[in-house]
Specification:
With about 450 residues, this protein is mainly alpha-helical. Helix content is about 70%, strand content about 0%. The termini are close together.
């Protein structure tokens, strides 16, 4: 068993500019490669708190972990209603229950990761460009990003295609993997070049990795936006606005043209193929992350700016902080549970209302999240900080990327290896969710 220390996006945000792989001294390349498999050092560092982090950003550990758990829960629900069901007609009544909206609307967790990725990548790059006085090696930035993501990605893909089939025996399992070998054999290069979010979802390889393709495509824009912002902050903000406006208009046009809706009662196959995975429909949370990174960097430098003034008022006035908490919690609650009305009364929603929710719910959810964490990242908000910045979240947050890659594999195995029909019920979803979470985090620690 090899223990390879994986770096997270959060650790990169702590000022680890340049080479942050394994060892940061002048050892030979071979020595650095072998040191990556030093399990004693990796295990000890795995549980150690970061030493270079900004204290006000510790809450991002908890947000990352809870968002990842929400993704696992949403996928547990998705796979529970897949396969050979004996009560398939009960799914409709299940979807219409009010408190099940956090299952049917778990896709918001993906937007949280887009936001975090945009914020952390941009904040790091802004600090790096400022330290280098406006210089940035683009090729080094892109290659470094690819080398961080691709090795584990390829390793899990090989495990998925060649090792997992050895252990399966169910009829549905073998049918699935016969198709998977064909699909992965013809489309694996799309995964390696991070363009699989434009491929046919039904014939893709590790189809849940569409997120990585989007995230990499967004990252290609990030250094360029940072350089523009460094040379002209106003132009940087304007460019962000133009990108957000253009992508929003595109999303509205697609939603109206193909009659798309978030409601599961009006589900259209075009929703996933033409809307859900496409980068221009998912980039707004990422752009909000970049915007917050620009604003936060100006606040940290003490520049006279409206955001700096707002941060000072948040620090000084407890009523403003509690107002932000109430607004964000109510907003998040409504955005999640609006799915209840969408699923129960889909015909009562006009085309305008349906399109508005489809296009704007994700950036609004991220905006509410920003309002929730803003007091904490400016040094206040002790309640939220105490919850999300707990030290127990640190080791779990380091495994987020690996858990994201692994957990659907276990779900596919359990779902398709069943030789008898399954009974769809809530308790089964919860129990399997707990099991999938435990085994995914355990295996991610090993990898």
């Amino acid at each position: 068993v090899f223990f390879f220390k994986q770096k997270t996006a959060y650790e990169i945000s702590l000022g680890l500019v340049g080479s942050e792989m394994c060892i940061r001294d002048r050892e030979s390349i071979a020595a650095r490669v072998f040191s990556c498999f030093n399990y004693e050092k990796n295990i000890s560092s795995y549980f150690e708190p970061p030493t270079r982090e900004e204290p006000d950003l510790r809450i991002l550990h908890g947000i990352r972990v809870l968002s990842m758990v929400w993704i696992v829960l949403g996928h547990a629900f998705y796979f529970a209603k897949s396969g050979f069901l004996t009560n398939v007609f009960d799914i409709t009544s299940f979807l219409k229950k009010f408190w099940h909206s956090y299952l049917t609307n778990a896709t918001f967790s993906v937007d949280v990761f887009f936001f975090l990725s945009g914020f952390l990548a941009s904040y790091l790059l802004v600090k790096g460009v400022e330290a280098a006085k406006g210089k940035l090696r683009l090729w080094h930035t892109y290659v470094h990003r690819i080398l961080r993501i691709l090795p584990l990605y390829v390793g899990v893909l090989l495990i998925f295609v060649f090792i997992v089939p050895v252990f399966g025996s169910g009829p549905g399992f073998h049918l699935f993997y016969e198709k998977t070998k064909v699909d992965c054999g013809s489309s694996f290069y799309q995964n390696l070049f991070f363009v699989n979010n434009f491929s046919d979802h039904e014939r893709g390889c590790m189809t849940w990795t569409w997120y990585l393709a989007n995230d990499m495509q967004f990252f290609l824009l990030t250094p360029l936006l940072v350089l523009v912002y460094y040379r002209s902050p106003r132009l940087g903000y304007a460019l962000l606005g133009v990108l957000a406006l253009g992508c929003t208009v595109t999303s509205i046009i697609l939603a109206i043209k193909y009659n798309l809706s978030c409601s599961l009662m009006k589900y259209n196959q075009d929703f996933f193929e033409l809307y859900y995975r496409r980068p221009y429909n998912r980039i707004t949370p990422y752009l909000l992350g970049i915007l917050l990174a620009f604003l936060y960097s100006s606040y940290k430098k003490g520049q006279s700016f409206w955001f700096t003034t707002l941060c000072h008022k948040i620090q000084e006035n407890g009523y403003i902080r509690w107002g932000l908490y109430v607004f964000s919690i109510l907003g998040i609650f409504w955005l999640i549970h609006a799915m209840y009305w969408l699923n129960n009364y889909p015909k009562d929603w006009s085309t305008f209302e349906d399109t508005f929710y489809l296009v704007f719910s994700k950036p609004l959810f991220v905006f509410c999240l920003i309002c929730l964490i803003l007091p904490s990242i400016v040094g206040k908000g002790r309640l939220i900080t105490a919850i999300f910045a707990h030290p127990y979240f640190v080791p779990l947050s380091r495994n987020t990327y690996c858990v994201y890659l692994l957990h659907p594999i276990f779900m596919i195995f359990i779902s398709l290896d069943d030789r008898r029909g399954k009974y769809f019920e809530y308790n089964d979803i919860v129990i399997k969710f707990l099991g999938f979470s435990l085994i995914s985090y355990t295996m991610s620690f090993v990898l």
